[in-house]
UniProtKB/TrEMBL annotation:
Belongs to the peptidase S9A family. Keywords: Hydrolase, Protease, Serine protease. Residues 485-699 form the Peptidase S9 prolyl oligopeptidase catalytic domain. One of its GO terms (molecular function) is serine-type endopeptidase activity. This is Oligopeptidase B Serine peptidase. MEROPS family S09A. PANTHER family: PROLYL ENDOPEPTIDASE-LIKE, PROTEASE FAMILY S9A OLIGOPEPTIDASE.
């Protein structure tokens, strides 16, 4: 039996704010427990399955390609913490990994990571967690905290088995292998040890905001846990951790634009936290600890001197105004300082210049400070970062490196000599030659003249004499940057003649804080017009054509997808929106929803401000669906997503189907997943394969009727 597109019933409700009225026919879908809602989602899933049945063979091909390129039995490079080397294993056929460790061997360099054999188990190996065992019997599984005491005796770990990002924490005695009776239910991500007797963690309020930090004493009833800090301002989240030197516990309360830090000496976990710099609206700062010439100092990254941040320092108890700190890295208009990591003998700074993230290191002399020296790499487009590095007195730091064409690499960098030691490079099975692919950057003028960076990746032998099938990705919110990174799965697109492009639109952080500020709140439409400008430029240059161009974005990037669907439907053959935030005005008018109040700094507060209401109403994707032809659209969501509720894409697809004069609209809801989608690596690969199969078909890169590549003479890799 051939299924017809599901027609959602209309149960109109009226929303009134600021004298404005909006009738919502599909708000009834918000009732997650309603049989009508669940029946509609299941009907949408059945219809999507029918309409994509012709993709089954292609999906299986792409899935097989992804799997064939990945080394399924593998391990991470050991990372030293205390007297142990910690690492992870993956085993072919197993969805999840194993957390392991071996002791640091006597007589060997304690800073040179041991080589772990691929087969068998090294002497002294201890399996801390087998995530496959923890996930058994659950359709969804996610690990939250995994934190070991400095001594190495106790492991605190937490799991989520529904996808709602609420975790149950247990404590394991690694000497005996036994679980302690302590069980902490419904907590947030993470757990921070203070010695072996105390554990700090976060709980959430009714809106699922991490509003409080708690202290648990090992061996006591969790009902006796002490709330050490509660944040009453609904725009602020809390976080807790320690400095690398293990001298300070740190609690941070932060909104999108303001932060405040409290500290407590780690050896006094039942003491009182003290505020460093009291919060000032619009001022953000983060602290780290250094010892300079035998004196303890705060190293502070802050924006009190300029939007792109500055790094200063002061004594532990001096605390002058942030603008009056001794400057280590000054504010500059052409770079965005992202933070510093301090070690006993050096400081690592991370910053962004020219839309590329960069690293610089200062070696600390016996007295005073040294000078920062930037690390240099050969490629135009790359991503480098300081990774892990838990040990305060380490003479080496772990550096990750990769690009669109270079598989991920892991180095040890010995600071004293400047020597890089390659520890591991991501293996691409079946053979991979980076020279077969090329990556470069274009600059596209926006409507107002701003220059938008665009990353382009494709096969080096791609025939560009005619428009090519292209996937144009973007995010454009929260100052998040889409940095160059290698993707095994993406090879299945490019080997079929597709171009992969990233539009680094405003709202992201690629070009500094101003780039972000000009793509948020009452400037949000710049995100959408930037993306359209990039699409137009790619078409004008002949790289692609409207019938060959597919747009993709997820979460806040899904809002972008919904907006450009309304604003420029004729530029795209298809739009793929993953957990898309397409009903933002409704969500921002509901303070009781998770994240809403904290999000007002990002989108504006339409609840209280009529100007913001009108501005959001003018672009909100769901509210601006019109009776016109749209490209084909597929929306992918999860029933248990607490960040972008399933109801948003469900309403959007229903309205598109009822209103648009052209286009196929599909909704795929994972019934046992969260914001990040399905769990388990094989399920994730298969989901990626499905999404790519849809993209390949929609862009015309392949003809699914016969499975042949349509990609300008490119090989059809099977």
């Amino acid at each position: 039996m051939t299924l017809m597109p599901p027609t959602a019933p209309r149960h109109p409700v009226t929303r009134e704010f600021h004298g404005r009225t909006f009738t919502d026919d599909y708000e009834w879908m918000r009732d997650k427990e309603s049989p009508e809602t669940l029946a509609h989602l299941e009907a949408e899933n059945a219809y999507t399955k029918q309409q994509t049945a012709d993709l089954e063979d292609l999906t299986e091909e792409v899935y097989s390609e992804i799997r064939s390129r990945i080394k399924e039995t593998d391990m991470s490079v050991p990372q030293r913490a205390g007297d142990w080397w910690y690492y992870g294993r993956t085993i072919e056929g197993k969805d999840y990994g194993l957390s392991c460790r071996i002791p640091v061997s006597e007589g060997q360099d304690p800073w040179v990571a041991p080589v772990i054999p691929e087969e068998g188990r090294p002497e002294g190996e201890q399996i801390l967690l087998d995530l496959n065992e923890l996930a058994e019997g659950h359709e969804f599984f996610s690990l939250g905290a995994s934190s070991v005491t400095t001594s190495g005796r106790f492991l605190a770990y937490s799991v989520d088995t529904t996808g709602d990002e609420r975790f149950t924490l247990r404590i394991k005695d690694l000497q005996t292998g036994e679980l302690l009776p302590d069980v902490l239910e419904g907590i947030y991500y993470g757990a921070t040890w203070a010695g072996e007797e105390h554990l700090f963690y976060q709980r959430v309020d009714a809106a699922w905001r991490p509003d409080s930090v708690w202290r648990h004493r090992i061996g006591t009833d969790p009902a006796e846990d002490v709330c050490v800090y509660r944040e009453d301002d609904e725009q602020f989240f809390t976080g807790v951790g320690t400095t690398r030197c293990e001298k300070w516990l740190v609690i941070e309360a932060a909104s999108k634009i303001t932060s405040e830090t409290r500290v407590l000496e780690l050896d006094d976990p039942e003491g009182e936290f003290r505020v460093l710099w009291p919060r000032q609206k619009g001022i953000e700062y983060a602290v780290d600890h250094a010892v300079i010439g035998g004196q303890s100092r705060w190293i502070v990254t802050h924006n009190a001197s300029g939007a792109n941040f500055e790094v200063g320092e002061c004594g532990i108890d001096e605390l002058p105004h942030l603008r009056d700190l001794n400057v280590l890295i000054p504010h500059r208009d052409d770079w965005r300082i992202e933070g510093v990591d301090t070690f006993r003998d050096f400081i690592v700074a991370a910053y962004r210049r020219g839309a590329i993230g960069r690293l610089s290191i200062m070696v600390l002399p016996e007295t005073g400070y040294g000078h920062f020296s930037e690390m240099e790499f050969d490629e135009e487009l790359y991503t480098a970062g300081s990774l892990g590095n838990p040990e305060w007195d380490a003479p080496v730091i772990r550096i990750s490196y990769g690009s669109f064409t270079t598989p991920a690499r892991l180095y040890d960098y010995r600071v004293a000599t400047g020597e890089f030691t390659l520890l591991k490079e991501q293996e691409v099975r079946g053979g991979y030659n980076p020279e077969d692919y090329t990556a470069y950057r274009l600059w596209v003028p926006a409507e107002d003249g701003a220059e938008i960076p665009v990353s382009i990746v494709h096969r080096a032998d791609l025939d560009r004499s005619q428009p090519c099938p292209t996937l144009l990705y973007a995010y454009g919110s929260y100052e998040s940057s889409i940095d160059p990174g290698f993707s095994v799965s993406r090879l299945s697109l490019m080997d079929r003649g597709m171009i992969f492009a990233v539009a680094h639109v405003r709202g992201g952080g690629e070009m500094g804080r101003g780039w972000y500020d000009n793509g948020k709140q009452l400037s949000k439409k710049n995100t959408f017009t930037d993306y359209i400008a990039v699409a137009d430029a790619l078409i004008a240059k002949g790289l692609t054509a409207p019938d060959r161009l597919v747009a993709e974005g997820g979460s806040a990037g899904g809002m972008l997808m919904g907006a450009i669907a309304n604003m420029a439907p004729d530029r795209f053959a298809g739009i793929q929106a993953v957990v898309p935030f397409v009903d933002p005005l409704t969500s921002m008018l509901k303070p009781e929803l998770p994240l809403t109040v904290t999000e007002w700094d990002e989108w504006g507060n339409p609840y209280s401000d009529a100007e913001v209401y009108d501005y959001m109403a003018s672009y909100a994707p769901y509210e601006n669906v019109e009776a016109k032809d749209y490209p084909d659209i597929i929306a992918i969501t999860s029933l248990h997503d607490t960040r972008v509720l399933y109801v948003e894409p469900a309403k959007w697809i229903a309205k598109l189907r009822a209103t648009a004069t052209g286009g196929e609209f599909l909704l795929k809801t994972e019934m046992s997943a969260g914001h990040g989608g399905v769990s388990g690596r094989y399920a994730r690969w298969r989901q990626t394969a499905f999404e790519y199969a849809w993209t390949l078909r929609t862009s015309g890169a392949v003809s699914v009727a016969d499975g042949d590549s349509a990609g300008q003479g490119q090989p059809d890799v099977r």
